[in-house]
Amino acid sequence: MSETHITDFDREAGFGDYFALLKPRVMSLVIFTALVGLIVAPVPVHPVVALCSILFIAIGAGASGALNMWWDADIDAVMKRTAKRPVPSGRVAADEALAIGVALSGLAVVMLALAANLLAAGLLAFTIFFYAVIYSMLLKRSTPQNIVIGGAAGAFPPMIGWAVATGGVSVESALMFALIFMWTPPHFWALALFMKSDYDVAKVPMLTVTHGRRVTRNHVFGYTLSLAPVALGIGFTSIGGPVYLATSAVLNALFLKGAWTVWRRDEPAAEADGYAAERKLFRLSLSYLFLHFGALLVDATLKSFGVELW
User: Fold this and answer.
1) Residue that finishes a domain, picked among 136, 169, 202
2) Which residues, given as ranges, of the chain have pLDDT below 70?
C-alpha cells in the first residue's frame, strides 16, 4: 500500500496561515512604534480611542502585508527566506490574499477616520498605498534604491499615532519618521550582505546584486553615520529625556562600531567566518529601533508620574 504525502498545496488554509499572511512580525513593530507616537504626544487620548486606533493601524499594516504577499508571490517562491509564506507555498490562493488585503485596507482606513480623525486615516491610507504600490509594485523590482525610498512606508506609524492624538504633525513626529526611515537601509542591506544569493535567484535589484558587496558596505556605513545625529536629535526635543538620550548614545556607538567593522571587511574574510559581523549587525539593528522607541516610552511614563527628568 502506497503512502500518502500531504503537502502545503494539499491542505486547506487554517487560521495560522491567514495570520501569517498579515506579516505579524512587521505588524508588531508597526503597532509598537504607532503606540509610542500616540503616547508621547502632548495631547492625552481616551483609552478606548487609543485602543481602537492602534487596532485599526494594526489591521492596516496587516492589509499591506497581504497585498505585498499577493504581488510578490512569484519571487517569494524562489527565495529560501520566503518560500514557506502562505501564498507561494500554496496554502492561501493569490486572489484570496488580494481580496483580504483590499478589504482590510478599506476597513482600517474608514474605522480609523471614525475612531480618531481624517488626518490619521489619510496617513494610514497613504502608508498602505505606498507599501503596496510605490514600493512593492514599482520600486522593489526596478531600482537598487528600493529599500531607501520604500523605507518611508515603515516610517509612518509613529507619525500616524501622533496624528491620532494631536490631529496634526510636528517636528517630533517628523523626527520619529526620520529615525525609522534612516534606519531601514542599513538594516536591510546588512541582511542583503549575507542573503545575496536569494536576491540573485529572484532577480531583485538589491544593492548587493546591482553594485556588489563592496559598494553595499560603503552604503551601510554611510547611512549609519547619517542615522546617528537623527536618533540623538530626538533626545533634545519635547519627547526626549535622559533615558532616551543615554540609550541612543549607547546604541548608536554600538551600531557605528558594527557598521565600521562591516565596512572594513573584505569578501574572503566575510566568507571565512560565514558573514558573522554582518549577521551581528543585522541582529543589532533589530533591537536598535525597539530600544529607541522603548526609551521614549520610558521617558513619557516618567513624565506622566511627575518625575522631573532634567
Assistant:
1) 169
2) 1-12, 308-310
